[in-house]
């Protein structure tokens, strides 16, 4: 169990120092990432405190704890590790940003320009291309309400007419 705790603590220390974590298509940064780092360090820290406390309580002649006490302590360690992994996972997946696609398919000329989005809607990437903005800027427009978007899984779909209207307002090409 100590190896799992040490591995989690090493990951937690890395996240605490860098202030960022990317895992399974999700990214968190700043304060939330540092909270995850502290959560991952906690099982090792608590196990060390518990071990030092029990060592101080042992009588000078006692060399080891009874087996039933060791079993209970192992169960407590496992519960600490499971709770830390669960809490860290929750924080990452509840508040982390979704990373962009790893690959992008090229579309053929004359093909439907909106694969992945229903008729009359565009993906964030397509809206970004049409508005000549980054995907993060399009997401900011959606979050502020300047561009209406509908949540679609981990991303958004935006109304094609709203994108065209915004493009005309911004003085873009028709």
Please characterize this protein's 3D structure:
The protein folds into two domains: 2-98, no CATH class; 104-174, Multidrug-efflux Transporter Regulator, Chain: A, Domain 2 (Orthogonal Bundle), CATH 1.10.1660. 58% of the residues lie in helices and 13% in strands. The longest helix has 29 residues, at 67-95. With 174 residues, the protein is an alpha+beta fold. A three-stranded antiparallel beta sheet has the order 1-2-3. The relative contact order is 0.10. It has helices at 2-18, 31-57, 67-95, 124-131, 135-144, 160-169; strands at 20-23, 26-29, 97-98, 121-123, 149-152, 155-159.
Short description:
With 174 residues, the protein is of the alpha+beta class.
Shape designation: rod-shaped
Q: How many distinct helices? A: 6
What class, by secondary structure content?
A: alpha+beta
Strand content: 5-15%
Number of strands: 6
Please state how the strands of the largest beta sheet are arranged side by side: 1-2-3
Series of secondary-structure elements, N-terminal to C-terminal: HEEHHEEHHEEH
**Total domain modules:** 2
In the predicted model, the low-confidence regions spanning at least 5 consecutive residues are 100-114
